[in-house]
From TrEMBL:
Name of the featured protein: Uncharacterized protein
Recorded GO MF terms: DNA binding; protein dimerization activity
Annotated Orange domain residues: 90-117
Organism superkingdom: Eukaryota
One BP annotation, GO: negative regulation of transcription by RNA polymerase II
Segments passing through the bilayer: none
Organism: Pyxicephalus adspersus
UniProt-annotated location(s): Nucleus
GO CC term (a single one): nucleus
Keywords on record: Developmental protein, Nucleus, Repressor, Transcription, Transcription regulation
Domain BHLH: 18-74
Pfam families for the chain: HLH
Region (Disordered): 128-155
Length: 155
């Protein structure tokens, strides 16, 4: 029984020694990966770095701060684009719905509904005009027609 106990103790000691030897190697590999990644970030942000610091050597913390700042700017730009796209989609859908609804009405009903919707639009939507997206050259159903008494029809 004692011999098997000594064998277990020896095995545990060998295992602990291997662990102690491997730990610094693993830590060095981890630090190398971090340094390599920071160096890659520095190369990616090189133009901005040259503008901010002419001849001084950047510390790792400076590079990381610049990367965080750059990513925040990119995220803000993307949020602005996403907001604009969603607004455009909303107004395009609103116009499409209006166009479809007006198609079911008689001419007298169309005139009343369009007048009411245009009045509501000017009060609630503000700068956005009802109808086509801003990039489209077509006119809005709320704009007055060239001829008096002529009702604009979307079909």
């Amino acid at each position: 029984m004692t011999s098997s106990f000594h064998l277990l103790e020896e095995a545990d000691k060998v295992h602990l020694n291997r662990k102690k030897i491997r730990k610094p190697v693993i830590e060095k590999m981890r630090r190398d990966r971090i340094n390599h990644s920071i160096e890659q970030i520095r190369h990616i942000l090189e133009k901005d770095i040259q503008n901010q610091r002419q001849h001084s050597k950047l510390e790792k913390a400076d590079i990381l701060e610049m990367a965080v700042q750059y990513l925040r700017q990119q995220k803000m730009r993307q949020n602005v684009v996403d907001t604009q796209n969603s607004q455009d989609q909303y107004y395009h859908g609103y116009y499409k719905c209006l166009k479809e609804a007006v198609g079911f009405l008689h001419s007298h009903g169309q005139e009343k509904i369009l007048h009411h919707i245009c009045r509501q639009q000017s009060q609630s939507l503000g700068e956005h005009s009802l109808g086509y997206p801003a990039s489209s050259p077509q006119r809005s159903p709320c704009n007055p027609s060239e001829g008096h008494g002529v009702i604009w029809r979307p079909w």
